[in-house]
Design goal:
mainly alpha, homohexamer
């Protein structure tokens, strides 16, 4: 069902998203003149509707690897059902791992412990670490999925954007700034992290157990970002529109 | 009216956005125990509503510089009126430049020529260059404002996200990929751009005049990104929710 | 037992390793003269024996975080026993995770699946990916522990050194060079990995499942390297001398 | 008149500058022996005169793009005349923009406001920012043209070289060092610029308006450098020899 | 005798080291199936002995350049004899330079003055600078040869590994940390070294003459690392196993 | 005679060069107003003459290290005399090394062999490698001294500027471009240099001996650049104005 074949039709279909959207708008390019005369932008061209768009197939073709889905074991079948019930869909990362039950189960166990188990860090704090790390690594899958989580958990759609774009532009408490500076340094230059960096976290009020959790979340997304980039993993389309308006916003 | 004072109350208010949102969620941090006991995430804590959020004051405090707005000259007054009529608001970048009419007028003249005048590049193509460049430079203002423009001009909300996050993850035509690869290289390592790079654009169908326009848009946003970062320019809040759903999306 | 306290004595003791070794050799530095006279190197000074050395306490103080070991659950107790039986010791990374059974179990499950389960990659191939990634991230713990594994699995002590120092200096088959180039790029610039990179692996004979495994091992060590660097994790001293001579070497 | 054609003869001629200079000196290379015998440097070879040299055609072929000059409008015609009168020539950057009057006028308006209008920064200060930024971006055109401006405005030929090569090697006041450090950071890592950087400028005596001007000049040359690199813009040859000796120098 | 020919047989032999070691272990790869079935790791395969290994020819083929050894002059002949007597072999770097006596003699004179002449830095201190610099430059030859020297001079095999892998992970005195931080910065970003960096060394107890020596050793290995990388210089195999156990170690 | 003292007066004098030049031009800064009014640039201020300038003391204070000159041995005394006779002065780098005859002699021997002995590379070719490497390392001393050498040996003042600013902007033969690309890569990322890079040089007509010489010159300046940066070495003022006009230039 989640199987991904590599026949030419699908590949073409996959590639057609953004291509179609932009081509539709920039008009026919069949004649590239030796010296281009300046063409008029037609307002009409800009406003045409594009059925499909940049990620039309994101929910059917999940990665660039051709791996058959394995039969779900009972635990994972129940977990997928729970996802559908709570989220309305199964996150594509889970379908991507579902070619091998041992790998899927190990991933789910580690993810749930890190992101949902009791911790000195709130769930929202763990999600903003996830997004700040994914921003440094420019991971499309994780920015889309966890950007949505930040918007939902915080009720603040702008906060999600800030974490995706540049956490330094957000107005953060000293606690959160210290937390994200540590995660960023650990992502960009892990070999430079030293006692002084841990001390900065302690001075910002974090316990040694909190430091482990900050490090573990940042480290986990350094793994996930790379799995996603290595396989061209596509996020579920539904994430994009989630939690885009805050309760009190006049729009 | 657009004056920005630097009194302590306002500064505090400015800084309070994301700080408040996250603090509300992570609970009181008054007692940092020598050895942190692991605290339970309370579901209640996560769901509280935050009036304001990460960018509450973005529309009142536009930059970190304390510069008095100058009286608008007649041309700029008319231009601001036109913005209000067409967009519903005056983009904050214009208010930021409004401390000096000569600077505002020069910026508006160059911007309008580059982004709106006839060109072999469609307006959407120019906007995706703007966003891809701003992504490399992690410019919060430009990513918010021009990300919204890409969503609107394309009718494809996912395309805007892709340009913000990592244009390489989008499924682009050879034309658009060549255009963005050139803009990225010109942004990151301008000293490495050579004839071979121009030839790649020519082979992708661009005329020499198109190459100028690609270069000029990419170069302009390398300027704008730096003005915005140097002054901590804040985008109008209204951009965030614009064009988040495409016509055919079931949501 | 594996508890790590933060009292001053231990901290001093921890810091004393390399310090003592080098100080012993460079002689008393108590009088830093305004203009240093050039002192003679005494041969005697160079040859003194240092009890302890640069990592004297590596096996007693495992990380820089003050976390109490939790009681081992039955599965993990059995696993630690198996380590002692097969390796002669429990790898410090396991002791570092042992403050929390859920975290330890998730780590062990993922590690064993990745590094030991059936795969198109041999165990040695997985270990050389681990070391090449850890070299890029300059992770002391992982270079020591997995460098030893490469020496042991290959029976070639020089191969371990090459992976630690610069895999490009090794004389590798096209298969192994492609595998390590992919792992290196995924480590250094994950946002640049694209279909062309996957195609290079396919042309070097790797299946799509193999590509997942290469990516998963590289990604996992990008996580582990960062856990180790964030916590200043120290490798067991025994690794250093393991498998330093090959069968046929005359030494 | 300023038209640039792309016929093969001109291209060959363009490329011949440095090539000829160096080839003339390194002697005939027609026979690359399988094992090179070490050839004697002949003193004669080193001293031959090269008519033309590395940039022989810089004043006739201004960019690598084939764009026809548009007829100059009256304002720009007057401006070009003024350049000839005051400088003795029209700077090539103006000829490069002269294919389109709207673009030329917008560039001239912004440039003149930034570099010549009243400001808390002297003209020389604005020029040293221009050169320091262009040095970071290794922009040949801007280093030549604005390096000459620094030499002329300061009467100090060494200062121009210092800004081109490494501004950190100059003996600067705290004011100028702070100014250039800000410009350099804004050029290299705009996403890292924050309130602390603005505070450093304020402490060095700059007003908020001065900060805008520092940022605006640095940002403008980040644009110009990229236009020049994207189009391979060549500086007027006359710049090279300008202001090479200071009044009091004994040479 | 030390002549290096470039005939195909030798080249093939050279390349075969690591290739053979790894291929032997990963089994026959003749049939790359369209969809790889997951193959079992056979324990047998992992344990096979490889005669030769990753650097089998390191002592016969010293660089990738085909240069005939010149006849040794009397001074250099005596020096080579002294090497054989004291070390048991002639370091390959000397054989690499031996195609030209003037170059060999200049190298030996500079090396011996820097590393062996009287200095405020002990010989061990000079060697750890050599290794830390070579680690930043990932120079295989220098890491092998000078890593062995650190192990021997210190009697601490772990210290050698720490310098090769990441000197920041070692527990160093302030003196040695300052010394290596200076060497690292001078290696990575020489243009950023300024008076403040020299002052840090002075505060750590170094005289101005010591600063010269730190700089000179770091600079020299920035030269040697590049000669070795440019020519693919191979270290003598004997270095790898030298000084791997300390006096007091139970192994 | 060449002694450098560290008394406060000299230090102040040293620092005063560029500082004075710029301060003279930007007027008194004694009153930094809370809100800076925009001050007029006075033409007068810009044109004042500055006695001294940015490097006034370059010929009296040669490095930032306080090292006494040693008595010159007879060989070095003769060499200094020869410099005065042929160049008109003793290059400051020689005075910097003159605190220790063994170091001075080793440097001179290596330098003269590399830059002046017979080679398949002309002297000019060796000098352009020196400048291109020094440009990557932003070494003020070497850019000034060897930039002058390129201007003199080539008779082409523009070629010197091109090598200082960005060698990619010069119109070079394939031979020279390959040579400089190799030198640049060896400077920036020596660990990435491989057989393919050497093959590119061979295809451009270089023998293996030539490759050694390219590597050796590039490597040597990677050493010299760092000695100069570590010690803040100042070039002789006379270099700046040397060979600024070519024979056929109309100026």
């Amino acid at each position: 069902m989640e199987k991904r074949t590599r026949n030419p039709r699908k590949a073409a279909q996959r590639r057609s998203g953004a291509a179609k959207a932009l081509r539709a708008r920039s008009g026919p390019r069949t004649t590239a003149p030796a010296r281009a005369s300046v063409r008029k932008d037609s307002a009409a061209r800009e406003s045409r509707v594009v059925p499909g768009g940049a990620a039309a197939t994101d929910d059917t073709v999940i990665t660039a690897l051709d791996l058959d889905a394995a039969p779900l074991g009972p635990a994972m079948a129940a977990y997928f059902d729970k996802c559908r019930e709570k989220l309305g869909f199964v996150p594509n990362v889970l379908k991507a791992y579902a070619f091998d039950m041992a790998k899927l189960e190990a991933f789910v166990a580690m993810y749930n412990d890190l992101m949902l188990a009791p911790s000195g860090l709130s769930k929202l704090e763990r999600e903003i670490i996830a997004v700040a790390v994914s921003s440094r690594n420019r991971c499309y899958y994780c920015l889309v999925a966890h950007g949505a989580a930040v918007r939902q958990l915080s009720g603040d759609p702008v906060l999600g954007e800030l974490m995706v774009m540049n956490y330094r532009a957000a107005k953060l408490t000293r606690r959160h700034r210290a937390m994200l500076d540590f995660a960023e340094k650990l992502t960009a230059e892990p070999w430079q992290v030293e006692e002084a960096d841990r001390e900065t976290l302690r001075k910002a009020g974090f316990s040694d157990r909190d430091i482990w959790d900050i490090a573990a979340v940042a480290a986990f997304f350094n793994m996930s970002n790379r799995i996603a980039s290595a396989t061209d993993m596509r996020p579920n389309r539904l994430y994009h529109a989630q939690a885009r308006t805050s309760a009190e916003e006049p729009l």
